[in-house]
Amino acid sequence: MAVGHHFMSDISQSERPESEPSSCSAPKPLASELLLSSAHVAHDPQSLSCESTASAGPTHAPLNAFLLFGLPTAFDVCLNTLDQRYEEAQALIHPDQWISETAKQLAAQHSVRCNQAYTLLKHPETRAAHILQLGGHWPVPDFPDLFEILLDWHEHGHHPQAQNLTSACQTFSHTMSLGNIEAAQRAYWWIKVISNHKKHSQ
What sign results for the dihedral spanned by CA atoms 97, 100, 103, 108? Predict the structure, then answer.
């Protein structure tokens, strides 16, 4: 079933657009996942829960952003494929594609959630946090030894190097594949620290 062939189960056929864009040759996520997903995903990984979703839509189920875009739940995401799926989804659920006001409002809500899911998967720190949350490994515990390392760096004027982000990402991906959750959580901690430093130094 190609994305966009159905909007919502409670939207009648007469409310759907007369024509739809042609589907891409690449495998698509199910329309039910794309269009019935209703969880609000905040940009802050610590807000990745359904507690703030009461007004987001008809259900309060947490969003699986990987499933929404038809991607495997893995840290190593092809960003070109993600971009393609995102653009395709936004074109198909744009409010102007629908006829009734109810359908337009629902489409607008899903468009916002699509934006949020895209932002979540686009960045390594939020993507790693989402993987940990989906696996039930959230929140990440404090690691006092890592805090001591960071404090020592700060006192001596040292900073996380941007190139270390690649190493931290590789460690996260590898340790998650091995099921070493503690090591993956520690790697996430470094991904977050290095990513935040990059943002502040730009």
Answer: positive
Structure-token pair, residue 190: 């470094």
Q: Cβ distance 67 to 131 under 8 Å?
A: no
pLDDT tens readout for residues 32-69: 334 333 323 223 333 333 223 223 333 345 789 999 99
Neighbours of 132 (CB within 10 A): 21
Q: What are 76-88's pLDDT values in tens digits?
A: 999 999 999 999 9
CA distance 179 to 137: 11
What pLDDT is attached to residue 1? 34
What pLDDT score does 202 carry? 66
Rounded CA Rg of the chain? 19
* Closest among 36, 105, 26, 37 to 71, alpha carbons compared: 26
**What tokens appear for 43 in the block?**
């940009």
Q: So where are the chain's domains? A: 13-133, 140-201
DSSP per position, 90-151: HHHS-GGG--SHHHHHHHHHHHHHHHHHHHHHHSHHHHHHHHHHHTT--SPPP-HHHHHHHH
Q: Which fold has domain 13-133?
A: Helix Hairpins (1.10.287)
Residue with tokens 């875009």: 69
Residue 162 has pLDDT above 70, yes or no: no
